[in-house]
């Protein structure tokens, strides 16, 4: 018998995030490989048993989730991830969601591409719908590209909100690798630069979520209660998480690769600089007091991106303790039954989360983080 | 540590319905708010993991189940209910089932309407199929309305069986509220009165299930072993459960509202009068000895309707202990893993249930009951 | 309280297959009826929560799984099996998979036929797609029948690989029983004999998987490391499992019945002869040392077929202890959460399994075995 009775009982009632800093006499070793793998599988099983989406199973929420599932499979090879990936791909008939102009609706294709590239059965995956989406998305005109949209978000470029940099570019990049069509990368880079030039705050080295949060020097510029600019944790998580995905599969000799490497490094260091004491980022990066609790979707994307950077030589190993502290905090937000809590709901700016609040993309961030933490030894 | 070792062990092996009256030294407080919410979520999770239906996911069995899920969401706001509601609505493409003349096949639209009215995303729900069904169901002729059907059930009115009063009227009523089309209410009332006039036993203040169970003064009138009339518990549960749903959303100034209020009060008092000692109704209301065990679908609908009446001022608060006793009995029929047992199988008259017998509509009745018990403090 | 604290703790940590032979002070009685039923339901629940397939939900992997679910329902009558059977049948719209020439793609119809024959609701099942498949499969020409295919597997008969004898014949046989069309049996027999004549090794009384494994007396004949012929455990499991299914529903007076009875008896005795000491067959029947661990899909099919033979008078009762030993081994391969492990992955010849390796058809074999072990008292 591995545990004493007391240990078993304690295990059954291990508390979640909020209590995570309290010491317990018998604690799980959150860096033990078997423990990490087990917590990841439990997260998968819980999420598969609790389907959730914004409007459709193929929308961006599952896009982010199954990107995490794909990366978890890549690291562990556990067939349970591949089974889930294939199951949803076939159920969705390999279709992206419906708005060809909207980056959100192609995010799910990251998982389709992953299955196509990693499942031994030939002619199983159907990537035609993905290719058709990309061709229209990148090459045909639309209201946003044309700049004719009149909304307060100023939707006058293709990727007018920073989340888009996770939704579309990694898919395009992986499609380039799979289909050997490098010309898509150049179009991607053009649109990426538009977003970067508009939303990246050079001084803060963070992304505004959209034009509503970019200061214009007016009295009505949006401010946090402490007077700082609004930098949304998950929003920046989308960007740096997307950068890690991009860099791993982007050709080493791609002419604009250095831009992405530099952007990754700048953001990574800034994110580390503002990491709260307990390891978990708050929903508002520069005003942590407003909702003063760790939030798991943003923190998960950061942990993934930072650990990926260390694992791949883009970030100094000296940051390992900081990244491990983040994972320790994230792991404590998982309920005993597998649910990943403390995930901010669907939104576009900082809002609070709670012990019970979950979303599939939060589980995706958890799996992304775990998949790199496993390699961080 | 909240519990002692003994408490934990006892908790793991807490027995179900049949044993519910045995005292255990450590008992869950079935009226604790967190405990009620937890047992409801466990019921939802178990049912979602064990899909079941008569002939199709959109049939009346899921109709009743997801009505319970909708009401559970209305009371608790727990996103897990809304996730399940949206998931099935999208999977079913917002379609009612196929027989436009059959009240059973529109029951699922209660959940579609609820999502449409309570999910913030605009243009997400598609209520056209519901409207089309209602238009045909209410305004076009069919075999039953025409009275040309020749069967022993005497299917010569639209809603010839009492279950129909749960399946269609609350959907019509909610559609009226949503779409602001009060004229549908008058048609509903016409058909409701047909059923009432035919199946309601003024003396017993209970509904016969269909014409087979209405006494005509003949020797072959159907009798229970004790010589009493056959009044089916779930059948009357459909009616009074439907009445509570109707009254909550029916315009306060609707011209026939008093009829529904009076019918609700008559039935509620009668149901209370015949409540068995242990709180749970038997499948045959006037012959409890025949299958002498509590049955959860009927009891669940009663508990919902009675608690709703107290919560909304239609029933005297003095009945609270009786209603609580019913909930205590129902709660004891839930297995440790979440399954709601002791539900009579699909049928049309009293038949026995068992500890393991479950149905989605039984889980729906459990959720309906819990959603009002939560407010009964 | 039924158990002592120690017993409960031990129960929570009961280990799986690899450790199964270690004695524990508190052991489940794997032959207790309630225990067998409980372990079967847990296997079902786990598998339903972890959908997996090769290429589509209607492919042979689910075909074999739901055949096991159907037989579990036949033995136990537990409605949870029927709910799962109906759910997948409706979700799949009663369609076989798509290749009308391929035996694999009709295997799922065993479950459709079972539902049609055992669900009380009339006109619920749609067997037209099954009939259309069979008509084409049996009566129309194709590349394999024509013998024009040029591959190393020598695909020059309809059922050129031994697995096919599980996939198609039991479905044809059950269709004959259901639709009262005995002429299909004769066509089945013709193709069965082709496979038998080609792949059955009269000396070893086992089936080669396909022509690659039939020795031609050449230097490059495939051999195991110990020099023996390659006889794949699951491959022979498909055949003898299929024989038990066939014999149960084949007309007692069918002219070729004796052939199937004799083949069953020959194989059953040979399988018993080579049973390893711990009860579980290795993936390579004549070279057990190569992957020297029990494998559950083959062993499950054997246990099903052998127990069926004892239960139906085709095998001497003296073999009961051997069959029970096999079930004991299989039961020990089930994880605490219900997963049936130690199942060789999809393949065509002996390869190793592991504690965690699962497949739906492995769960199907487990359910088939359990359904006959329940009757073996």
SSE layout:
3 copies of one chain form a homotrimer.
Chain A: H1 5-12, H2 33-49, H3 60-76, H4 79-91, H5 109-118, H6 128-139, H7 143-146, H8 164-167, H9 169-179, H10 183-199, E1 200-201, E2 206-207, H11 233-249, H12 257-273, H13 296-311, H14 320-331, H15 360-373
Antiparallel strand pairs in A: 1-2
Task: Walk me through what this model shows.
- By secondary structure, chain A is an all-alpha fold.
- The first copy, chain A, has a single domain, classed as Glycosyltransferase (Alpha/alpha barrel).
- Chain A contains 15 helices and 2 strands.
- The first copy, chain A, has a two-stranded antiparallel ribbon.
- In chain A, a hairpin with a 4-residue loop joins strand 1 (200-201) and strand 2 (206-207).
- Residues 1-16 and 18-25 of chain A have low confidence and may be disordered.
- Chain A binds chain B through residues 5, 9-10, 12-13, 49-57, 345, 356-358, and chain B through 1-3, 5, 8, 45, 48-49, 78-80, 83, 86-87, 90, 121, 124.
- Chains A, B, C: This is Rhamnogalacturonides degradation protein RhiN.
- Chains A, B, C: Pfam families: Glyco_hydro_88.
């Amino acid at each position: 018998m591995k545990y004493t009775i007391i240990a078993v009982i304690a295990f059954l009632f291990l508390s979640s995030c909020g209590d995570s800093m309290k010491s317990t006499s018998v604690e799980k070793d959150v860096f033990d490989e078997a423990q990490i793998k087990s917590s990841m599988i439990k997260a998968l099983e819980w999420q598969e048993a609790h389907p959730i989406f914004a409007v459709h199973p193929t929308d961006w929420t599952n896009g982010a989730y199954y990107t995490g599932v794909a990366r978890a499979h890549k690291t562990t090879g556990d067939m349970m991830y591949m089974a889930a990936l294939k199951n949803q791909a076939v159920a969705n008939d390999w279709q992206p969601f419906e708005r060809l102009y909207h980056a959100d609706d192609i995010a799910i294709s990251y998982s389709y591409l992953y299955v196509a590239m990693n499942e031994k059965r030939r002619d199983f995956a159907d990537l035609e719908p993905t290719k058709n989406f990309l061709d229209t998305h990148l090459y045909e005109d639309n209201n946003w590209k044309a700049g004719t949209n009149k909304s307060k978000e100023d939707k006058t470029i293709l990727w007018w909100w920073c989340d888009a940099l996770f939704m579309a570019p990694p898919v395009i990049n992986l499609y380039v690798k799979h289909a050997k069509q490098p010309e898509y990368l150049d179009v991607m880079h053009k649109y990426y630069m538009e977003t970067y030039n508009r939303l990246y705050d050079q001084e803060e080295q963070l992304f505004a979520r959209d034009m509503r949060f970019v200061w214009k020097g007016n009295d009505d510029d949006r401010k946090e209660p402490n007077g700082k600019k609004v930098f949304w944790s998950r929003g920046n998580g989308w960007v740096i998480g997307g950068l890690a995905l991009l860099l791993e599969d982007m050709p080493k000799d791609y002419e604009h690769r250095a831009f992405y490497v530099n952007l990754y490094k700048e953001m990574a260091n800034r994110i580390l600089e503002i990491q709260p004491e307990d390891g978990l980022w708050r929903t508002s990066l520069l005003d942590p007091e407003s909702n003063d609790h760790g939030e798991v979707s943003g923190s998960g994307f950061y942990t993934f991106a930072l650990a990926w950077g260390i694992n791949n030589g883009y970030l100094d190993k000296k940051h390992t303790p900081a990244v491990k502290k983040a994972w320790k905090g994230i792991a404590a937000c998982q309920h005993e039954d597998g649910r990943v809590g403390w995930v901010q709901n669907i939104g576009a700016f900082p809002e609070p989360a709670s012990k019970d609040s979950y979303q599939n993309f939060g589980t995706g961030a958890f799996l992304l983080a775990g998949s790199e933490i496993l390699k961080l030894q």
